[in-house]
Amino acid sequence: MSTEQDIRPFRIDIAPEQIDDLHARLANILWPDELPGVGWDYGVPVSYLKQLAEYWRTGYDWRAQEARLNEIPQFVTEIDGQTVHYLHVRSPEPDALPLVLNHGWPGSFIEFLDVIGPLSDPRAHGGDPAIAFHLVIPSLPGFAFSGPTRRVGDGGTERYAQVVAELMSRLGYDRYGAQGGDAGGFVSAELGRIATEHLVGIHLNGPITIPTWDGDADQSREYSAENSWDSAASAGTETEYSEADMARLEVLTGPESYTRYGYAMVQSGRPQTLAIGMHDSPVALLSWIVDIFQRWTNPAIELPEDAVDRDAILTNVSIYWFTRTFASSIRLYRESNSWGVQVKNSGVPTAGAVFAGDNSIRALADQQHTITRWTEYDRGGHFAAMEAPDLLVADIREFFRSLR
Questions:
Q1: What whole-number distance in Å separates Cα of residue 183 and Cα of residue 207?
Q2: pTM for this predicted structure
Q3: Tell me: the pLDDT tens digits for 316-366?
Q4: Which of 57, 102, 230, 316 is the most interior residue, by most CB within 10 Å?
């Protein structure tokens, strides 16, 4: 267990001058023109963003959101020179299982606000008190109140996992579970590889199953349903894809993939160039992040705020703006080393919860993880904790029920 000097209570307190500056910038936006009738096909519609930006300036109440966040116990510590901010919510149930919840990009710790109560105190939320969790919800290095990373290499998901493992050890948790989606899913899976003896189970929502390649850059462009390339080719095994897997492979590697994943290519190739605009203009930041939310939330829902609460989206974007961490947050796309390559299966029991619009491929997940539970849902989306917290909570509870 850590000493008091190692861990300090933390409260969010954004300076009034920062809020005034945000409002002033939002009042002086230079808008581009837009083509009529293209909807979201060219990106975020200017007409839509104008309304959202005006609400951010005149209707959204940061102080109310800040007060809500400060009701949750928050702390900071330092791990190998990196500030680490985290929420720590202990369950009233004495036999609760520690569980670390790892967020993704462009999310933050606020992704989990709606699952904290049901997971930590099921008795108060109509759940079985035998399935309760002590929750640790870190701001990954480079995100939010953990502040920017300062060294090359500290922005990769492998490094994040090392930091989270040390944090759990510092908190005195020797046996715990891990949950995450998006980048947080990579962190949780990596925890299984580097802290195997401490992990009782790993729960992944929308597990990202990236087909691997043998170094031939043209190979990914030649994918077709009739001539799929084998993600296990380098291992000398043959992958058997279901019909659903084949459809998802087409999304991942077909002609539309360049539009769908173009943002990741920019963030992995020229992250600093992109970040300059995002740190100077709040509406540029809003546009970039809202576009991701629209693209990755439930595909049956057109507008982001119809899938995720509008104030929650703006709180998330506000945190990126106030903490000046967009640049450091996207370094994970440049510095992570386990995406699209063969990785070791940790052997830790792992659950996959696939929500609407997720392109998780079961055949690849079975290669990369020890899948003991796989559930597919027809609602929710990539931001499961924000879009369908009830489904996510139920799936987490059921998975860990037999692993406690």
A1: 10
A2: 0.92
A3: 999 999 999 999 999 999 999 877 677 889 999 999 999 999 999 999 999
A4: 102
